[in-house]
Each structure stands twice: as C-alpha cells, then as structure tokens.
C-alpha cells in the first residue's frame, strides 16, 4: 500500500514535465534545440529529485525495497545522486555511521538503510540483528570492488560468489592449508624463522645497542608465509635475498593500498573515466603483470620439481597442494595465480597485525619489568600492592 501511494504521488508530481512539451508545440521545440535539451534535463532532474524525496535511505533505495518488509527500514536520504558518501569521508567511518543512526531515530539503531552513491547499504548497532544479517545467505556474496576485480581477486576465496566454486576453494584451504597436521608439519620451519630472527636481533643489539623490532618481526613473518604457501624462504641478511624480499613486500604493500583506497567509481560508475584521484586503474595495470610474473614463476618451479617426485607429503606447501588436485577440484593456472596471490596477501595482513601486536607487547613488557625492578612493596598501601598484582597478571597474559 505504501509503495503504491508513493508511486502515485511520484507520477502525479511529474505529469507537468510531460505536458509542458505539448503546450509549447513541436515546431517550437524543433526550432530551439537548446530548449528541448533543457526540458529533457529538467525532466530527468525532477524525476530524480522526486524519487530521492520519497525514498528513505537515499538514491540507491529508489526501487522501494526498503519498504518491502513488515517494518520499513529507516535511514538518512543524504544528497541526490551521492547519498551519504560525503558523510563517510569525514573522520572515522564507524563513528560517522553511529552519528547517522542516532540522528535517524531509535529504530535506526536496530537497522538503518543508507546510500553510498549507487550502492545500497545497511548498518546495525544491535547484536541480534547483526548476527541475523551475518548468518543469512542473502549476504553471503561480497561485492567486488573495481580494484579487487582488476587485481584478480574475483576468483579467490575472499571475493568469489557463493556457490560450488567457492565451496571447493574453502574445502581445499581448510583441508590442505589450515588442517592441524599441515600446521604441525611446518613447525620446524617456524622454529628456524624464530631462531634466525633472534640471531639478527642480537647482532643489531651488539652493533648499535638499540633494536628496531618491526623489521625483524616482519622479516620472520614474511619467511613463515613464504615457507607455508610458496615453499621458499629468503635470507634477508644477504644482498640477493634482501632485494627479492623487498620486491615482494613492495608488491604486497601496493596491493594493500589499492584495496584499501576509496574508489569513487565503485559507487558512482559514471565517474570511472572522469575522476580517479588514487589512480587505481593505472596502478592496478602496473601491478598485475608483476604479480603474474612472480606467481607463475613459483608455479613453474614447483611443476619442474614435481616431475621427479609426484607424491605429496605433509611438508608440501600450498602450491604443491594446488598442483596435486585432480578431477573436479583441478584448477587452471589463472585460478591458481589468483588464489596464491590472495592467500599470500591475506596471511601477510594477519602477519603484519601480529608483528605490530608483538612489538607493542614486547615493548610494554620491557617497560613493566623496568618498573618492577625498582618497585618495593608498601605494607601500608594495599591498593598499590593490588595494582602491582594486576600488572603482573597482565604481563603474564601478554
């Protein structure tokens, strides 16, 4: 009923746009092309404004799907054409969304609709609603950004549409990469990476007296990922190994920046060839050949190595696993390049987070022990003793 009344009001309000050319006459319009173009522009703007004004949630919700349920979804309309895209460009997005939900009323906290250009979006601040949204199959597919599509991510597990292909990738990853037996088989490699990291830290400490932990943690994380995914480790202390590792890190860093950059054409497709402040298209076109050359070289090397021994053991890396797949699970080279590149980038991202966390916890532990070494228990101050006990517990946890 609400949809019908909205459609009627929209149609009644735009009748004058179609009646105006009839009043002016065809001869007048043919004689004045500028007037005809102005009428067409006026009609388009009028219809767009009326559709925006009658659509809670903004221009991306103009087809009325925000009112299909028993309870309509509330939300800010934003601006015509752009929606709430500028509200999200100021400050932290999650705080901007929380402020928008507060301004839209109490119902918006449970579920709020808004538009980011042509992209319809919903946000929930209610745990029960968020749980239902995340568990519903309607939200199983992940929208593919333009940068992700150009960087071959559309064929990888992170962006592939829900279906048989995605389930096959998930089964291969859970069975051959993250299974307990496979993780345990790479334990000697992780121990070697840890020992090499400690030796490099000790050498830097002996040479300069101070140590920058982040490069050592990142190098150890990189070697751990390379060993489990590609079966290769770099000696970052040597010239060739350090140069190759730096080349790989530069590709990963560029890919992260492209995926994280806000691309206006993802939400306003008509801007694709007009406005690209982050140069996403040009940078993707430059990065993809480098990635394909590197990953295809790794695949070819594994193929040559597998000609001598076709058996797959527990120490095999993820490239060997993909090459050993047969039948319906067999993948093409393009799919393997995309999967290996995305798998490497995903684990590298987690490794970077681990490196930052390890750096923070190590520094905080050193500060705590320097505090404890000069601390004495105060018999008259139980609160100080309690605070010290809490710090000891925290230190044990980290």
Attribute tags:
elongated, membrane, monooxygenase activity, two-stranded antiparallel sheet, transmembrane helix, 2 strands, mainly alpha, 3% strand, disordered N terminus, 63% helix, Cytochrome p450, 3 domains, 398 residues, metal-binding
Description:
Helix 10 packs antiparallel against helix 11 (213-230). The chain starts with a helix and ends with a helix. The protein has 16 helices and two strands. The chain has helices at 2-24, 26-31, 33-53, 93-104, 107-110, 127-135, 146-150, 164-176, 180-185, 187-208, 213-230, 239-260, 280-306, 318-324, 333-373, 382-397; strands at residues 112-116, 119-123. The protein has three domains: 1-54; 57-139, no CATH class; 155-391, Orthogonal Bundle (Cytochrome p450). A two-stranded antiparallel ribbon has the order 1-2. Residues 1-14 and 368-384 have low confidence and may be disordered. The chain is elongated.
Oligomer: single chain
CATH topology description of the largest domain: Cytochrome p450
Counting DSSP H or I runs of 4 or more residues, the number of helices is 16
> pLDDT below 50 for ≥5 consecutive residues: which ranges?
1-14, 368-384
Question: How many beta-strand runs?
Answer: 2
- Helix fraction? 55-70%
Structural domain count:
3
Quote the average pLDDT: 73
Question: Strand share of the residues?
Answer: under 5%
The N- and C-terminal alpha carbons lie at a distance of 59 Å
What is the alpha-carbon Rg in Å?
29 Å
- The neighbouring-strand order within the major sheet is 1-2
């Amino acid at each position: 009923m609400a949809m019908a009344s909205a459609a009627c009001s929209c149609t009644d309000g735009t009748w004058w746009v179609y009646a105006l050319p009839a009043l002016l006459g065809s001869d007048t319009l043919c004689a004045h092309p500028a007037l005809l173009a102005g009428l067409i522009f006026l009609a388009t703007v009028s219809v767009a404004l009326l559709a925006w004004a009658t659509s809670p949630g903004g221009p991306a919700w103009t087809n009325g799907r925000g009112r299909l349920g028993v309870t309509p979804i509330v939300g800010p309309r934003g601006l015509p054409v752009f929606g709430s895209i500028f509200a999200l460009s100021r400050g932290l997005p999650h705080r901007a969304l929380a402020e928008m939900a507060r301004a839209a009323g109490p119902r918006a906290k449970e579920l709020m609709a808004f538009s980011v250009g042509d992209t319809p979006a919903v946000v929930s601040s209610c745990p029960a609603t968020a749980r239902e949204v995340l568990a519903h199959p309607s939200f199983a597919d992940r929208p593919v950004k333009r940068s992700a599509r150009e960087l071959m991510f559309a064929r990888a597990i992170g962006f592939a549409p829900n279906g048989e292909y995605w389930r096959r990738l998930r089964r291969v990853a859970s069975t051959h990469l993250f299974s307990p037996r496979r993780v345990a088989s790479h334990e000697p490699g992780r121990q070697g990476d840890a020992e090499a990291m400690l030796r490099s830290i000790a050498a830097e400490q002996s040479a300069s007296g101070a140590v920058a932990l982040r490069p050592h943690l990142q190098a150890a994380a990189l070697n751990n990922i390379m060993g489990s995914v590609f079966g290769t480790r770099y000696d970052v202390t040597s010239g060739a190994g350090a140069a190759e590792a730096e080349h790989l890190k530069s590709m990963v860093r560029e890919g992260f920046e492209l995926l994280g950059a806000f691309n206006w054409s993802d939400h306003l497709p008509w801007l694709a060839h007009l406005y690209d402040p982050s140069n996403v298209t040009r940078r993707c076109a430059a990065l993809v050949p480098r990635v394909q050359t590197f990953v295809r070289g790794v695949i070819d090397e594994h193929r040559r190595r597998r000609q001598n021994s076709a058996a797959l053991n527990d120490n095999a890396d993820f490239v060997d696993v993909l090459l050993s797949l047969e039948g319906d699970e067999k993948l093409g080279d393009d799919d393997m390049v995309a999967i290996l590149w995305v798998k490497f980038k995903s684990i590298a991202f987690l490794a970077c987070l681990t490196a930052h966390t390890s750096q923070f916890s190590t520094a905080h532990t050193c500060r705590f022990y320097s505090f404890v070494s000069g601390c004495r228990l105060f018999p008259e101050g139980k609160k100080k003793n309690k605070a010290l006990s809490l710090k000891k517990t925290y230190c044990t946890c980290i």
